[in-house]
Write a structure and sequence with these properties.
By secondary structure, the protein is α+β, with helices and mostly antiparallel strands. The protein has two helices and two strands. The termini are far apart.
Length: 102
């Protein structure tokens, strides 16, 4: 019987390191889609999850350097895709008005 790769001690250690690092660094939005990350609850579409930069299925390693934190929804959409888009910059599309014309 095969065991789950995500249940290995090494992956659990790397997972915790990545999430702890990015939470302490103040990561509040998914760098891929811009949704606000919910650090309180897990298994929600906007819950933070570690993601392999080079997918494990394509030879990527379970290392801190090969991970980033993105939202659960983006992580599930990416799956094992190798041709991933780089994180899009979050652009404020709302124009702010600083004065009122009377």
């Amino acid at each position: 019987m095969a065991s789950s790769r995500t249940g290995t001690a090494q992956w659990q250690r790397v997972r915790k390191q990545r999430l702890d690092h990015d939470r302490e660094a103040g990561l509040t939005k998914c760098p891929r889609c811009g949704i606000g990350l919910d650090w309180v609850y897990t298994r929600r579409p906007n819950s933070p999850e570690p993601d392999h930069i080079i997918p494990w299925s394509k030879g990527g390693k379970d290392t801190f350097e090969n991970t980033r934190t993105i939202c659960r929804q983006c992580n599930q959409q990416l799956g094992g895709l190798l041709n991933r888009k780089k994180a899009r910059p979050i652009v404020n599309t709302v124009e702010l008005q600083t004065s009122t014309n009377w």
